[in-house]
Amino acid sequence: MATGRGSINRKLEDNKKDVLCTQMPESHNNRPKNGHKNGLRSNGKNGSHTSQSRWDEDFFESFEETPLLVAILTYLGYGLLVVIGQIRDLMRAYGIEKDKSCTEPKLEGFVPLYQSWESFYTRNVYRRIRDCWNRVVGSKPGTRITILDRDSCDYGWTFELTGKKLNVMNFGSYNYLGFAENSGPCCDQVQAVTEKYGVGVCASRQEMGYMDIHRELDLLVAEFLGVEAAITVPMGFATNSMNMPALVSKGSLILSDELNHASLVLGSRLSGALIRTYKHNDMDDLEMKLRDAVCNGQPRTHRPWKKILIVVEGVYSMEGSIIRLPDVLRLKKKYKAYVYLDEAHSIGAMGPHGRGVVDYFGLDPRDIDIMMGTFTKSFGSAGGYIGGSKSLINHLRTQAHSFIYSTSMSPPVAQQVISVMKVIMGKDGTNQGMKHIRQLAWNTRYFRKRLQDRGYIIYGNKDSPVVPLLLYMPSKVAMFSRETLKRGMATVVVGFPATPLIETRARFCLSAAHTKEMLDEALKIIDDVGDLLRLRYSSLKPPDFSEKDIQLIE
Amino acid sequence: MAYIPATWDMYDLIQGVLQAPWYHMVFEVALILLIFKIYVSQSFSPEKTVLTEKEKDLLVEEWQPEPLTPNVPDDHPIIQSMEKYCIEGQNGKYITVNGKSCINMSTFNFISMVGNKQIQDRAVKALRVYGVGSCGPRGFYGTMDVHLELEDELAKFMTSEEAILYSYSFATIASAIPAYSKRGDIIFADENVGFAIQKGLIASRSHIKWFRHNDMEHLESLLIEQNKADKKNPKKAKVTRRFIVVEGLYLNTGKICPLPKLVELKWKYKVRIFLEESMSFGVLGETGRGVTEHFDISRDNIDLIAGSLENSIASVGGFCCGKKFVIDHQRLSGLGYCFSASQPPMLAASAIEALHILQEQPRLLVDLREKCEKIHDKLKNVTHIQLIGDPISPIKHLMLTEPASDRDLDMHTLEMVVDYAMNEGVALTIARHLDSEENNLLPPSIRLSVNCELTDEEINKVVSVISDAFREVLQKLSSVDMKSPLDSVKQGDGEQIASR
């Protein structure tokens, strides 16, 4: 693959060391000085790493560099916004302009709850384009959603529902496998459970909140993942933030991908372990930090680390990239670290059997120490799980915060996961699950390929159902979101500070429930808006992957 | 998505430059020149030890990490008791455990919302519209109209300007505290606050000052101390936010916080109050509006009220309410709000229905109070039991009057009490804690939760079973040679308990 798209570079590292994996273990000290390392193949040959080259040859990820002119213009755009914001703040301070933000009334003697300049960005930048987020939905988050139209009569300070309803295509929800449904067998089972159990549990697992339906769910999740045991938690965010502290503590090191989700960051912080980040998906950097950690031990005392935990996500939801898991596992084995894999966006959505990135790379789930994921996305439910060895799960059952201090899962929510998981595993006696999985894979390739052919800058892996399209300029963010909505398509746009300042983007989440016609319509809308906003920034040759390798099931 | 950046220093920077005196500028320039000179000039540095690759490989080879987790066997007492008492079917006023029906005195189903037909119907109706999950965070098409409706209802119910909904109660207060209190700020917290609050305090990285449980004199002395420190350093005091964090009704002790005194202290020492009402919401007060209503204090006095929908309301989720300028801030800086999928719409719908029921049937709360007092009355004089908690609190802790010196031994005794009661048809639970992580670990206890629908007969049964259980178990333990139960416990579960 390399020669064809050797020119497509990962954005987070310099172009020169683009190729990461096969040249691995010694490469950080004899890294090629210049010239494209499109020598994946030649590197693949070197000795013991031939086995890895197989996955690597089919691993295509694109992170095109921001065009210089665009970068400059984007910075100028922000500069202008800041200048105008400052002027308006000044005018507000002198009462020339009415201050509509909900500011704190002055209380004698109290320190303000938050400084007014803390909210400068919210007041002067975010407020202008606030209508692009928090749109109100009045239906299931399926392929078509009903958006309740809002109107603002004061330029974004407040919104009111107009009563109008927009029925649009949904490319914003994480409904990867298309199981967010309000009818059908899964839904019927959920209804039956609601009628039998009610919705509440009112207790934590260790304090009489452990029900037979939880046991059933735990066992099924373990079977699905192919691990010894699993536990489930009612909130995906809390699965990370409440369980990580039970795994590592002071004296341990967490090596965390720099783009890890907020819940992983919070969980790491609460654990008390030292956190070091490495460059996104950069195995060179990871190895360098691992090596350094093992050799130098803890800072100051130089005592060896108790344990080292590598924390990664399966699919990164803002980048659309896929973790280079085979390499992570190789490093993990070499340096005896542990791996915490968060499959929030990949479970269900990746791999030939929908079992996440582990399945995608054809690896053994038992090699991963902690398998974490959520039910919010592909399963159309809520909550999260942790799977792993029996002793890990037993430890969590006795020690995890989520088992002692917080409510266990609501039965209907648990049932939704059980029902959907059974469909994916084919336990319902149909091939619906496989059909959905294949369809999603096909949709992903089809949509990504078409977008790249059209000259948009698209980030991420060719098989990732999260598709970010780069917009760069803050004004285009708002425009893109509004224009696509006007034309009948709901999209997510993301800007600073969730992304780097000049890398604002739109994000499409593909679903197995999207039909080819819908994708084509979406592409037409994107083309329309893309021409309007001049979004075809890419200067690279389109890649040569194709959806044709994927067999659909009729 | 536009979140507020942590700081926006530009304004400060410009202000700083403009206000600096001339000699300061001269000094700065001199410093910069000096730094430049040091940077350019070659300096002597002792040689660092540089490991060769071979040595590094050896070190890598040598290093042995600790196992990821200690080996917890399947027969660990906690896992055993969890599996033994796995509930079949609904977790309501009565529960079925191992085919046996028991009166449930262990879950926070205070006003019997679990299994309420009206709520179930509403949940099913929502299910048929929205499906189960919302498939997105609030920002990205995860805001359903039911979420807004529930927020409105909550704000109206609590007569506050705005309410914000979280998808999990634990994440609510744990996200709310760090949204306001930052490094350098000071938080005065009750030593027995719940675990979620403790985690929020840690996440905020603020300076925490613990005061003794419900001890207002101690709190005041801390405030006075702080006042003195502030006077010494008024510049710092001007930017240091101060908070008091308390619970309305303490889960750990079953006691109500002395809110009137707290409010008085708030205004006297200019501290903000964050009130966590997970347990008191839908329990205390004439109409279930919590501890503020209980003491008849205007909610305007409280800066932030956090509550849970998981106890009285019997759904899953949490909320914060207060003034608009306070709550709005969380929509961009509450971690658990921004970065988590929103609450499943059917759970939001059932919470709305439960709120309606609560408002339509004030009788539920009258009943609840009556039952709480009744049980309190009957249990307070039972031998071997030290009853902790206020009479009207639906949470009561039963501790041993003569605790052993060994915590594990007491735990074992209580576990035997639970087993005994379970056999007699009363489901109890031990209050579980992470011993090593709690701020102020209380003695082991059995935590009783009262349901408003308990009949007199059921109450009598519960009380007699509990007193029997304590008596029988303690008799059994003391009849055996004092040494042997300890040994048997130590040998049997010692290792496992130690790992707890």
Automatic annotation (TrEMBL), chain A:
One of its GO terms (molecular function) is serine C-palmitoyltransferase activity. Residues 10-19 have a biased composition (Basic and acidic residues). The keyword Endoplasmic reticulum applies. GO terms for biological process: ceramide biosynthetic process; sphingosine biosynthetic process. Keywords: Acyltransferase, Endoplasmic reticulum, Lipid metabolism, Membrane, Pyridoxal phosphate, Sphingolipid metabolism, Transferase, Transmembrane, Transmembrane helix. Its cofactor is pyridoxal 5'-phosphate. GO terms for cellular component: endoplasmic reticulum; membrane; serine palmitoyltransferase complex. InterPro entries: Aminotrans_II_pyridoxalP_BS, Aminotransferase_I/II_large, AON_synthase_class-II, PyrdxlP-dep_Trfase, PyrdxlP-dep_Trfase_major, PyrdxlP-dep_Trfase_small. Residues 1-53 are annotated as: Disordered. Residues 40-53 have a biased composition (Polar residues). Its EC number is 2.3.1.50. Residues 167-526 form the Aminotransferase class I/classII large domain. Residues 30-39 have a biased composition (Basic residues). Gene3D superfamilies: Aspartate Aminotransferase, domain 1, Type I PLP-dependent aspartate aminotransferase-like (Major domain). It catalyses: L-serine + hexadecanoyl-CoA + H(+) = 3-oxosphinganine + CO2 + CoA. The chain crosses the membrane at residues 68-87. It is found in: Endoplasmic reticulum; Membrane. The keyword Acyltransferase applies. Pathway: Lipid metabolism; sphingolipid metabolism; Sphingolipid metabolism. It is an enzyme of class 2 (transferase). It comes from the Eukaryota. Belongs to the class-II pyridoxal-phosphate-dependent aminotransferase family. This is serine C-palmitoyltransferase. The gene is LOC106071213.
From TrEMBL, chain B:
InterPro entries: Aminotransferase_I/II_large, AON_synthase_class-II, PyrdxlP-dep_Trfase, PyrdxlP-dep_Trfase_major, PyrdxlP-dep_Trfase_small. The keyword rRNA-binding does not apply. Its cofactor is pyridoxal 5'-phosphate. Its EC number is 2.3.1.50. It is an enzyme of class 2 (transferase). It holds the Pfam family Aminotran_1_2. Keywords: Acyltransferase, Lipid metabolism, Pyridoxal phosphate, Sphingolipid metabolism, Transferase. Residues 103-466 form the Aminotransferase class I/classII large domain. Coiled coil: none annotated. The keyword Lipid metabolism applies. Pathway: Sphingolipid metabolism; Lipid metabolism; sphingolipid metabolism. One of its GO terms (cellular component) is membrane. One of its GO terms (molecular function) is serine C-palmitoyltransferase activity. GO terms for biological process: ceramide biosynthetic process; sphingosine biosynthetic process. Belongs to the class-II pyridoxal-phosphate-dependent aminotransferase family. This is Serine palmitoyltransferase 1. It comes from Biomphalaria glabrata (Bloodfluke planorb). The lineage of its organism: Eukaryota, Metazoa, Spiralia, Lophotrochozoa, Mollusca. The gene is LOC106074781.
